Amino acid sequence: MPLPQRRHLAVPVAALAVAGALVAIPGAGTAAAAPPAEFTPVSAAYGPPKGPTVKGQFLSYNDFHGAIDPPTGSGAVVNASGTSTPAGGVEYLATFLKRLRAEAKAEGRPTITAGAGDLIGGTPLVSAAFHDEPTIELMNEVGLQVSSVGNHEFDEGVAELIRIQRGGCHPVDGCQDSDPYRGARFTYLAANTVDKKTGLPILPPIEIRHVDGVPVGFIGMTLEGTPGIVNPAGITGVRFTDEIETANKWSNVLKLFGVKAQVLLLHEGGSQATATPTPGVSDCNGFSGPLVPIVAGLNPEISVVISGHTHRFYSCKLPNSKGADTVVTSAGSNGQLITDIDYTLDRRTGRFSEITAKNVIVENGVPDGKGGWVRDAAGAYAKNPDTVDAAAKKVADKYRTAVAPIANRLVGSISADIVRTAGPAGESPLGDVIADAQLAYTRSVGAQIALMNPGGVRADLDADQSSGGETYGQVTYGEAFTVQPFNNLVVTQTLTGAQLKNVLEQQFVGFGGQTTQRILQVSDGLTYTWSASAAPGSKVSALTLNGTPIDPAANYLVTTNDFLANGGDGFSNLTLGTGRITAPGFDVDALVAHLATGPIAPGPANRISTAP
């Protein structure tokens, strides 16, 4: 058997753009007929091969979010098929990747390891303190080869993303760990992130790799809606193009190069329907979401879509623009799963002839011999030293040691777990606490109301978490930072009562250009009711502050983070505020200051109510 060829082709963006301009895109951007509501777990075949075959493997994951340490609290386990399995942590991810590669190699299947975005951004302190250089170093270590960008790759702006790819010290903080930062050894693909001046993608749109002489093409992109969910200040020089049109354009370019086996790395996704027991990690139960119409418009050459963004696990086959099967996968988040995709290529046609896929749980626990997992005295899952990858652990420990004095500093306390799970009205106990913290942080400038975006609340506060050996209820800076990791500024500005109501109306689809319902978390004293059945622009009623109805003509000082104040999450009405005042420090500093007055109890989650 010929040795597998590991070379890959990096085609200059400018040359690809010229080629792309020559390619017609018939039907691009048009949705095919609606697919059926149910899809079976994935195993797709495309007819008997017309010649000799080549076998290979893709290993993929998505939405890693710098989860170097094993997740804790409610996120410590993967809940699937009625069972809970402790999972995650980069030294365990490395072990499982190596194990799966070895199994494939024994079967004669060379491996390509791919990602679907959000590898960085929204990360814990161990990564974020060093501008996510630790995560990239670890992605290099575990053997990642190619990945799409995700929306969180833009958290610090386009210029920072390019530095992350190419290397070099941070322009402000320098090389913090005394080592030069050499960049990503894998390739970030950004087909639909286009420079407004040049009209070209800011990073390569495609990559071609060869599997035993047969070319396989990768197209990578983030969701078109990225501008609405990142800080607008960092992306002023780029635009984000339609997923279907962009994927098909570069698919046609790949065909010009003779590449007919194509994989789309797409940071957009969907989810399985809820069920009891919870669907399995490789199931496709009642699948729905933005990914369905996107796949329905794709060229048939794109036989695999490795997706992300929704943090859900699934393994599906969905119909493409020709009604043929496209394999669609997602590995949840935080490195707790790996998608194992085995495939066969027809050497004569260069196309996939067969694809199968499943998700594998990155177990980190110690079996108790009774079908469960060993726990320590505090109830936390014990970690299995036998499944630790020494090389990955060495890199991770370097950064854990460097950040420990900051991360393990006690900053306050809570009286019980404070969760970010929202109730029927969209309000969560932790959302209340964060809004209260920001209000308290800005009362000195006269703030009366604080609003917090729910997507900025990244983890629960668990009373029994003991990151630095602290006792029950004590909270460290690292734990607080994991809840609010974006280093947003805290700003206070003046809104009229009418403008405030419009901000709240803009939580709902159909008002002010809003496309996704997002319920803002509100500070103590602000109450209102919303009705799902009311028309857009008229959903909010009974809006009061400390029991007094909001006066449309009066002025109110409202605090938010600068992500919201700049129009993030579609809240363009917040950009209409005047007299902006920026508080010292970051939003996490507001939370830390509030926790210091503790023990802080969970928020009541009763400030927002619903009506028919």
From TrEMBL:
- Gene Ontology terms: biological process: nucleotide catabolic process
One GO cellular component this record assigns the protein to is:
outer membrane-bounded periplasmic space
Leader peptide range in chain numbering: 1-33
* Domain of life of the native organism: Bacteria
Going by the UniProt record, its keywords in alphabetical order are:
Hydrolase, Nucleotide-binding, Signal
Any GO MF annotation of the entry: nucleotide binding
Task: Keyword check for Signal, yes or no.
Answer: yes
Please state every residue range assigned to the domain named Calcineurin-like phosphoesterase. Answer: 62-312
Query: Where is the 5'-Nucleotidase C-terminal domain positioned along the sequence?
Result: 413-572
Q: Does the keyword Lyase apply?
A: no
Q: What is its EC number?
A: 3.1.3.5
Family designation: Belongs to the 5'-nucleotidase family.
What is the protein name given in its UniProt record? 5'-nucleotidase
Report the source organism.
Actinoplanes lobatus
| Origin organism lineage | Bacteria, Bacillati, Actinomycetota, Actinomycetes, Micromonosporales
